[in-house]
Amino acid sequence: MTIDLYYINGSAPCRAVLLAAKALGIDLNLKYLDLMKGEHLTPEFIQINPQHTIPTLVDNGFVLWESRAIMAYLVSQYGKDDSLYPKDPKQRAVVDQRLYFDLGTLYARYAEYYYPVYFGSGTFEPAKLERIKEAFNFLNVFLENQEFAAGNNLTIADFALISTVSTFEASGFDISPYPNVLNWCKKVKTTAPGYEEANEKNLLVFKQMIEQIMKNK
User: What does the alpha-carbon distance between residue 157 and residue 95 come to, in Å, rounded to a whole number?
Assistant: First the structure.
C-alpha cells in the first residue's frame, strides 16, 4: 500500500496531516513540492489537483485535498477505531465544528494578518491583530473544563488546531494570556504521537524561512 502526500514541511495544514498519519501508524510517501519554484503549477500536478493546493493525498488512485478532509478520510479508512474522529453524530459534530473554526476563523485570521507582510508588501494592521485575539478568546472558552479541543479525547481537531496555534507561536504571538489554550498546547505536545517529528521539526523550517524573509525586507 502506497499513500502519496504532496506537501511542504512548513505548512500548518500539511503538518496537521502528518500528525494524523503518525497517530494512525501510517507511513506516507512524502512528495515535496517547492512552491517558490512553482512545482505546484506544473501540468502534471494540476492534472492531479486542479486547485494546485497542498497537502494533496493520492491513495491508490483516490485523490483528495484540503487537510481536514484528508485527516477525516484517513481515520475513516485506516483507523483501528473511531477515537480520532468519532462516529457518534453529536461527538463528530463537535469535532467538525472545531475543524471549521480552525479553517474559517483561527487559521484564516493568521493568514490575513501575517501573510500580507511575509509574502507581500503589507504591514501589520492592529485591527487584524484584535481579530486574532478575539479568536484565541473563543478557543480559550471552547477548552474550558475539558482536556482536548472536542472533549476529553485527542481527535483530528487537535491536530488541526495545534498546527495553527504553534504557527502563531513561531510568529511571535504570545498565547500566555489564554490559560486554557496554554495548558491544552502543553498536553497535545506531550500526548500526540510523533509530535516532535510531524510538527515541531517542520515548524522550525517554517520559522527559519519567515525569519529569513523578514531579515531581507
Answer: 6
For residue 8, which phi and psi values (nearest 5 degrees)?
A: -125, 140
Amino acid at 212: Q
Q: How far apart are CA 86 and CA 35, in angstroms?
A: 34
Where do the H-state alpha helices sit in the chain? 12-24, 43-48, 67-78, 89-101, 107-118, 126-142, 156-170, 179-191, 195, 201-216
Kindly state whether residues 13 and 118 are assigned to the same domain: no
Residue the block writes with cell 507561536:
169
Separation of alpha carbons 135 and 217, rounded Å? 29
Number of domains in the chain: 2
* CATH number, residue 185: 1.20.1050.10
Separation of CA 120 from chain center: 22
In a domain, 84, yes or no: no
Is-cis flag, bond preceding 55, omega within 30? Answer: yes
The strand pairing partners of 31, in sequence order, are 6
Q: 69 and 94 share a domain?
A: no
pLDDT digits (tens, 9 = 90+) for 6-42: 999 999 999 999 999 999 999 999 999 998 899 999 9
Instruction: Give 40-82 pLDDT, tens digit per residue.
Output: 999 999 999 999 999 999 999 999 999 999 999 999 999 999 9
171 annotated active-site: no
* Contact status, residue 192 vs residue 158, Cβ threshold 8 Å: yes
Q: Which of 11, 67, 163, 166 is catalytic?
A: 11
